């Protein structure tokens, strides 16, 4: 029997069982357990043909260049903003990721945050636990159903969020790099126009240099004092300092955030605000979805070693 391919894994997978499954199926080495990472890579980097990583950990140019015989990356996660495109394309490395299988759960959490921040579920829970109910009534909240849902980024996750919105009798509009053919929803030709139009602005756009800080103070002002922001995409898309100011000054009504510019350290000012619901980047974190993502991480590797292509490839890898 031929030897299994030698793979490098640069961190724990966000599904514990997957670490063992990978170790059982491949000749895998854990870089994160090496005390002298640079020394290890200098001595052994050329041995590895594959790299297993996650969207959270990524693969920077230095790591990619330290693996001169790298042929494939399998990344746990749909986002590929932490994988160094230039270095990977230069070495003609095929890159697999885990799209589609997480769309439902990410859209569910977007809606959980939207409902929570608008109806005050977490704030009401704190109110009851503090015993404040014996002293008075909980404040009135904002109705969700029938309102305008603005989606920034109408990819697979954005369209799944749109379907959730239709179930809440919401009117859906979106902004995207270009209009989506056949979409029944209203296209707004700028993010500013979308923010002006909607009651809830949900960020579902990919991260990376092209979308960095597109949600500016101006966009937040367009959303306005009755508008809510929800972000389940990447913290980098929102200017977090501008968001804090807008929340503190009541220039927007509230925010539901699963992602932050510096994870796991949201700006401390966010923790002080009652009109903000915070989650620890957990949108894909259900047993079912993480299992499906883990299966795709393995399938991408197997497909690559059988056919030369991962099953689900990131766009710039598919163009190689
Ligand atoms: C994961 C994500 O939690 O899929 C993504 O891009 O950000 C999340 O689903 C993450 O990949 C784990 O590292």
Automatic annotation (TrEMBL):
The keyword Nucleus does not apply. Keywords: NAD, Oxidoreductase. Residues 111-283 form the D-isomer specific 2-hydroxyacid dehydrogenase NAD-binding domain. Pfam families: 2-Hacid_dh, 2-Hacid_dh_C. The keyword NAD applies. Residues 42-314 form the D-isomer specific 2-hydroxyacid dehydrogenase catalytic domain. It comes from the Bacteria. Belongs to the D-isomer specific 2-hydroxyacid dehydrogenase family. This is 2-hydroxyacid dehydrogenase. It comes from Comamonas endophytica.
